[in-house]
Amino acid sequence: DAKTTQPTSMDCAEGRAANLPCNHSTISGNEYVYWYRQIHSQGPQYIIHGLKNNETNEMASLIITEDRKSSTLILPHATLRDTAVYYCIVRVPRGFQKLVFGTGTRLLVSP
Amino acid sequence: ETGVTQTPRHLVMGMTNKKSLKCEQHLGHNAMYWYKQSAKKPLELMFVYSLEERVENNSVPSRFSPECPNSSHLFLHLHTLQPEDSALYLCASSHEASGRYNEQFFGPGTRLTVL
């Protein structure tokens, strides 16, 4: 599985957009980019995934660069409840999925 | 609510005790997972069950014994644990099928403390 690099921590003001970057320069053609988050003392929560096109759902948007070597998760209007650790994972969605979580980005949303 | 429940939510046990963690998924998934999350460490995959057969065991000590009686239930039996086994134990499930994206849905976890 391709390795990912994320900043250790980020801050965001409540109501503003939170843009969380992820570098995956060794990504291969059949690997998808997945994002999960983990709110303190809870299990991880799936957010969004994509292959090469930008994706949007009710939680977030995912922007993947044309060369697919990096991506950005966008929370358009961050709330205090979005404070969590965000994980970027790159892998092929085969059979069963062995997720390898790195250290992620700790996002702190402040009033 | 993710459709994956875990009981108990908190557990304190002595090193000589035997206890079991339970996970149940209500999503119709056919793969289930146990993860361990120690303080300030990334999640570590412990076991994977696909179609009720164990398909992965990540060099987990034998004091942890998983059981998957059916596609909706997963247990983790614990015996003679060590204090360093104290962690958050997370269960997850996914639907294993070609053409699907296999996102995993996690339960809330069991916070285990071994005294």
Secondary structure elements and their pairing?
The complex is a heterodimer of chains A (111) and B (115).
Chain A: E1 9-13, E2 18-23, E3 32-38, E4 45-50, E5 55-56, E6 61-64, E7 70-75, E8 84-91, E9 105-110
Parallel strand pairs in A: 1-9
Antiparallel strand pairs in A: 2-7, 3-4, 3-8, 5-6, 6-7, 8-9
Chain B: E1 4-7, E2 10-13, E3 18-25, E4 31-37, E5 44-50, E6 53-57, E7 64-70, E8 73-79, E9 87-94, E10 105-106, E11 110-114
Parallel strand pairs in B: 2-11
Antiparallel strand pairs in B: 1-3, 3-8, 4-5, 4-9, 5-6, 7-8, 9-10, 9-11
Description of the molecule:
The complex is a heterodimer of chains A (111) and B (115). Chain A is mostly beta strands and 111 residues long. Chain A is built from no helices and 9 strands. Chain A has strands at 9-13, 18-23, 32-38, 45-50, 55-56, 61-64, 70-75, 84-91, 105-110. Chain A has a 5-stranded mixed beta sheet, with no helix packed on it. In chain A, a hairpin with a 5-residue loop joins strand 6 and strand 7. Chain A is globular and about 40 Å long. In chain A, 35% of the residues are buried. With 115 residues, chain B is mainly beta. Chain B contains no helices and 11 strands. Chain B has strands spanning 4-7, 10-13, 18-25, 31-37, 44-50, 53-57, 64-70, 73-79, 87-94, 105-106, 110-114. Chain B is globular, with a radius of gyration of 14 Å. The mean pLDDT of chain B is 89. Chain A binds chain B through residues 32, 34, 41-46, 49, 93-104, and chain B through 2, 4, 31, 42-43, 45, 48, 50, 55-56, 88, 90-92, 94, 96, 98, 100-109, 111.
Q: What percent of residues of chain B are in strands? A: over 45%
Number of helices of chain A: 0
Helix content of chain B: under 10%
Task: Give the CA-CA distance, first to last residue of chain A.
Answer: 38 Å
Q: Looking at the structure, what is the overall shape of chain B?
A: globular
Please state the average pLDDT score of chain B.
89
- The radius of gyration over CA of chain A amounts to 13 Å
The termini of chain B sit apart by: 31 Å
Q: Which class of secondary structure composition applies to the elements of chain A? A: mainly beta
Give, in spatial order, the strands making up the sheet with the most strands of chain A. 1-9-8-3-4
Determine the fraction of residues in helical runs of chain A and give it as a percent range.
under 10%
- DSSP strand tally of chain B: 11
Low-confidence segments of chain A, given as residue ranges, are none
Q: What coarse outline of chain A follows from CA principal-axis ratios?
A: globular
Q: Quaternary arrangement of the chains shown?
A: heterodimer
Identify low-pLDDT runs of chain B.
Answer: none
